[in-house]
Amino acid sequence: MERILVLGFILATLCLITTEFACNGDVHSGNCLESDREALVDFKNGLKCSENRFLSWKGSNCCHWEGITCKNSTGIVISIDLHNSYDSFSDYQNWSSMKLSGEIKPSLKKLKFLRYLDLSGNSFDDISIPQFFGSLKNLQYLNLSNSGFSGAIPPNLGNLSNLQSLDLSSEFSYLWSDNLDWMAGLVSLKNLSMNHANLSMVGPHWAGVLSKLPILTELHLLGCNLSGSISSLGSSNFSSLSILSISQNAFNSKFPQWLVNISSLVSIDISNSELWGRVPLALSELPNLQYLDLSGNKNLKGSCAQLLKGSWRRIEVLILASNNLHGTIPSSIGILCNLKYLNLGFNNLTGSLPIFLEVPENCSSESPLPNLTYLSLSSNQLTGKLPEWLGELEELVELRMDDNNLQGRIPASLGTLQHLTNMWLGTNRLKGTLPDSFGQLSELVYLDVSFNNLIGILYEENFSKLSKLKYLLLSSNSFTLNVSSHWVPPFQIHFLEMGSCHLGPSFPPWLKSQKEVEYLVLSNASISSSIPNWFWNISSNIGWVNLSLNHLQGQLPNPLNLGPFASIDFSSNLFQGPTPLPNRGAYLLDLSDNKFSGPIPQRIGEFMPELWFLSLSDNEIKGTIPASVGHMWNVEVIDLSRNELVGSIPSTINNCSNLRILDLGYNGLSGMIPVSLGKLKQLRSLHLNKNKLSGELPPSFQHLSNLETLDLSYNKLSGSIPSWMGAAFSHLRILNLRSNAFSGELPSDVSNLHSLHVLDLAENHLTGTIPAILGDLKAMAEEQNKNQYLLYGMSSVHYYEESLFVNAKGQVLEYTKTLSLVVSIDLSHNNLSGDLPKEITNLFGLVVLNLSKNHISGQIPGSIWRLHQLLSFDLSSNKLSGTIPPSMSSLTFLSYLNLSNNNFSGKIPFMGQMTTFTETAFAGNPNLCGAPLVAKCQDEGLDKGQSDVEDETDNNFIDQWFYLSVGLGFAVGVLVPFFICTFSKSCYEVYFGFVNKIVGKLVWLKRRANRS
To answer: Model's pTM, two decimal places?
Structure first.
């Protein structure tokens, strides 16, 4: 018996020595097991790939096959690594030829001691993750990332109790799970990555499940559609956590304060995840924290000065961009010895940058921020000068200070930063010259100083060592380039912006050497020559070219030799000849304001089906509009205005389903408006004015629910104004039907146009009365003190600018930049009758009111003083009677008044504002008297007879403005400051506060005089 026990002990010991393989009775001969080799061969047979992928899979010893690892002592297969990855285009080509796809056969289950399986970076064509993976009990590492798997994640993966690392991530993942309860069995898991897996159905309890994994060290759940609060978890649940990456989710949660108690944290990324509340100052005290990214949480608040005063002992990367941080940047940032990357861009930081930085005490270097390579303070509200210490950041590679309010000169010391590759200083208020030292930045790739107040002459020496320069942005300054005609720059530029720089009069000859240009802006550059032929030899890669606002002349080649789908702006020059088209299509083509002639190319739409912006306006183009414009499926802007086009509007335009702007104004188009235009449901601005169009307004227009501008003026349109307009055009700002043949009454439904700012129905055949309900036009009842440019287009660089001619002050004025401030009603030159409705004085925002040349009777409402924004008021050539209300003297902004040719009587209230008008404003009223007319009133008390006229104003109010106009003078004291202050709320408030004080003082003096 004892011998048996001894023998058993010896056998057990041998089992331990010879591993599991010997215990299972297999004979090891130094090669891999026959059973493992057969399993691998069967696994390979299920895969689809190039023959080169498995060239090494030959012979009996599978341990020597590429991607296979065996245990040295036994030959048992313990690892399969068939990952496939790429980092560049050339790598991608290799990846594409080496990727795996097909079927994953269950023969892998025979590899009972498999510990490592990596199939990442392949393309398994949306097959499901095999269920049998959950039976690989010894698996410690499983990586299926970016491999094309889709469907539900098998819950039986939770059986892998030995698994230490699980990666199911993918940038284009179609994997999903409706709960994470199965993860409770992954008791050995240290690293979990499921980036972009869809976990939207998991609910708010996902964090509670994961917090139960006892030794979880890394957690990566980027872009998993997670939601729910993460602020209530206890920190002890993640006591081993080192890396937390849960960005690009939708938590809508208060910032998780419990993070500050996890001392093991090295990296935190919760960017773009809808966090709110304050960033805890205690984050800076985490002893091991090296990486923190909380960017893109727009409602995260905090004081920058307080946050950056913390210790941040080991912090290397600090990204707090695109939040709601406020305050100033403290000098204490200088003591962050290990900081390499700092991004505070797109916040609300204010004040000046510190003049000096605090010097670190416990660093190996005595200079501030000795390791900083990246600094971004872009898009804040910083003021003051650029400090000299920026030039002491010796390791700096990228500096971003653009889009602030920085002033003063650019420090020459920035030219000593020999590692600098990117410098962004654009869109500030910097002045002075570009430092000569910048010519020594031999590593510089990107230089942006555009949109500043810089001046000076740039010589060849300024670019002498910039051999690596690829991006140069100098636009919107006052530079003059003074180089020889034989100069060959040391760089090959990709992106060149020199708009508003003085480059002319000749087209820059040094561009001939630039063979890699892709983006070129030379607008407003004082160039008055023709484009040389050599330009078209270097232009085949250019994707964006802007040569607008010069005096370029001559004829352009047709077709234009440019890059595929280019954006082309040759507007506002002197080009002649036929309209050219790009040889490889275009996204944008602006040839407006030139002298092109001849017809529009009939195949224009077929050449450019991808076009989104087309402008040929202000030329001498003749002929018809080609039907091929209907091929421009993506076009958003078509502007063919101010040409000599004839014929009808092609119905094929309705195929342009994305069209937002259609401007065909100022041509000779005739026929009826196509019914098909009503299919352009994205249309926001329609200009068909100054043509010869006839017929009625198509009923299909009521489907244009996004319309903001409708200008059909100066045509031959007829019929009644449709009653459906009020319900159909809820966004309409401008309605211009002037000078047509519309007839009938003005429908009361027009009052439902609640967004309307301009209503021009003048010079038609309208009859009936002015509806009292017109006083319900909501947008006109609001004062327009804030100017907003009316721009349309996909690009902030290129857009269509809304414009409109308005009859005001007895003349025709064009409004563009200030169009949003215009509030106007013009019903002149019609056959309207009845009384002037009192309700029209509810429209406090009116700037222009013209009801002249009608048959309107009755009196001017005494409440007319309520229209205190009125600049132009014309009631001439009507049948109005009664006295002129004294309250009109309080219309202090009124600069044009015409009450001529009516039946007004009594004394003109010649006080306040009324003293600024001459007799022509009152001519043709035989019963009027008093200044400024020659006819004098017989009785000084005539004005007392005006008490029967409705007057809702307060006498004190009239007196205040009377004394103001006498004391200050209208033109200098009121009108000029008002227009200056219209664009500044703070100026507006200060100015009128001052006015009120002056008025109060004058009223006090008047009362004192009355008492005496």
So the answer is: 0.81
